[in-house]
Amino acid sequence: MKIVVTVKLVPDPNAVRRIDPATKRLVRAGVETALNPFDEYAIEAALQLKERLGAETTVTIFTMAPESMKESLRKALAMGADDAVMLSDPALEGSDVSVTSYAMAQALKKTGFDLILSGALSDDGNTGGVPGALAEYLGVPGLTNVRKIEEIGDGRIKAQRETDSGYQVVSGPLPALVTVTMAVGEPRYASLKGIMGAKKKTISTLSAADCGIDRLVGSDGAKMEVVSIAAPKAREKARVVEAEDGAAGAQAILDFLRERKLV
Amino acid sequence: MPPSALDFLEIDALLDDEERMIRDTVRAFVRGRVLPNIAQWFEDHTFPRELSRELGKLGVLGMHLHGYGCPGASSVSYGLACLELEAGDSGIRSFASVQGSLAMFAISNWGSEDQKNAWLPRMVTGESVGCFGLTEPDFGSDPSGIRTAARRDGTDWVIDGTKAWITNGGIADIAIVWAQTDEGIRGFLVPAKTKGFSTHAIERKLSLRASVTSDLIFESCRVPGDAVFPEVLGLRGPLACLNEARYGVLWGAMGAARSCYESALEYAKARKQFGRPIAGFQLTQQKLVKMLLELNKGVLLALHIGRMKDAGRAHASQISFGKLNNVREALAIAREARSVLGANGVTLEYPVIRHMNNLESVFTYEGTNEIHTLILGEAITGSNAFT
């Protein structure tokens, strides 16, 4: 089985973020590039499947990013993925959700796959729109917010899908796309052997032309425009309630919740 | 933009991608697994045995050794791992040092093919734990006088004597024991379950509490003829191992120092007295800057010695240079940081007093300050001042 994990390379989640008011985009210059933390869960899910299904299963990391970010994929390879493919083309710069999904779909048709695993959203843009659109462009079922893959094989996948009130068991034919939640398990640490072996693994590059991308892409093809940006309203100062004893404290909390019609 | 307070000299840029990834991986492990628990382990005076397998899975046990399942990482990568482990706790780094640089290195360097096959694959995964018995109650800095003795009895060896201050002693599956024989000092592999071999935990220590320290007791302990390291004779055997471990220590100490510096800096910026953060007072700034200077100099020194070691050029006395300087300065940084944190500096809520107490042991083990001074003194004058 060929599993492809789509990842996004984002500015270091631990670094301070700035938005350039002129371009209305996140400033990436001078900030380390890292794997989108949500995608690390997708990698973990893929590696678990590989362990379950045996050596016939391969895990390929796929990303759309400038070629200069190539080395940032090594961490995914060090965790245990077999190889990586990058879709890199200057023409793709500034692509929105729709164009990104189209371009990725074209590339993934080229690489082939039985199962695509994705994180639920990215740590930078936070739209969470790509996986759904990608499934649509590929014409495969999209199983979103999966917390556990119950069964896979014989051309089908069955998984538990997290909802607000519990979970649903969903199933569909392969090939399919699955987005995972953090419930699939903490991403493993790369081992030293994995890190040292990662530099021998292949990271290949595809251009837009290689994938038959023939529509207008990048910022020119984007259907969405960021009109304005604003900082979120600062949170109100917390109210500290001092109470005589536990009962009075509980009453104060209850009054507060009732006042807001929360109970 | 001013340089980063956390990497003032851009030492990061001196590392390659693989070295940075190894460092980041060990750092993430320490952040996720060690830091949330270490204060409790220290307070409870315990080293959780399961950590051994976790460190093995991470790949840091014997990571710089080659073959038999060992990763074969560079000296610099190994040093970076030691630094990150000790930024967690000196006890955790000590576990890895004793396992990898003392016990496994001894087997890898001096062991027979059978001995290597029997132990190294199990030790690299952390399934089996090793300890290293050289020091005795009456022989610390002067190991040539050790009294533990092994005599031949038919094809067997029979060992009698006591080893003291042995890290991992009580949890070890295999002890590397150095003993006097008719031919001189030789090394033996003694499995924990061997009859006549027992350990005694050293309790009530106020340093390295997240590490097991034991006496090893041998009473007519009989081991087969193939339990001895076949070739090596004399102090050369154990000293080669100590050199490896000292190399890890000179990096590791800077990890403890970094943790103390970062705690002090963060605390000084948040703690207000006389209406403003104490980081704004000249006396506090002087303390922080002293820490900054010695921390960055120490890491540069470690990296320099590491590059020399990878090039096969690091002399034992140069490793003494690093051990002496870096542990001494780490201890000074820890004490300075302790004073910045005021009363909070003496609680386990902050890492500082734990590092400070740990470093008192690190200052003494793997060659005391005095011994390294004499090694360096001899190296530059040609005159031996030990005796």
Helical stretch tally of chain B = 11
Helical fraction of chain B: 40-55%
How many beta-strand runs of chain A? Answer: 13
CATH architecture of the largest domain in chain B: Up-down Bundle
| Percentage of residues in strands of chain B | 15-25%
CATH-level-4 superfamily name of the largest domain in chain B: Butyryl-CoA Dehydrogenase, subunit A, domain 3
Give the C-level CATH assignment of the largest domain in chain B: Mainly Alpha
Low-confidence segments of chain A, ≥5 residues, pLDDT <50? none
What is the CATH architecture descriptor of the largest domain in chain A?
3-Layer(aba) Sandwich
**Mean pLDDT over the full residue set of chain B:** 97
Biggest sheet of chain B: strands, sense, closure?
A: 4 strands, antiparallel
Largest interface: A-B, 14 and 18 residues
Specify the structural class of chain B. alpha+beta
Summarize the structure.
With 263 residues, chain A is of the alpha/beta class. Helices cover 27% and strands 25% of the residues of chain A.
Write structural notes for this entry.
Chain A is an alpha/beta fold and about 260 residues long. Chain A contains seven helices and 13 strands. In chain A, helix 3 crosses helix 4. In chain B, helix 5 runs antiparallel to helix 7, helix 7 packs antiparallel against helix 8 and helix 9 packs across helix 11. The termini of chain B are far apart.
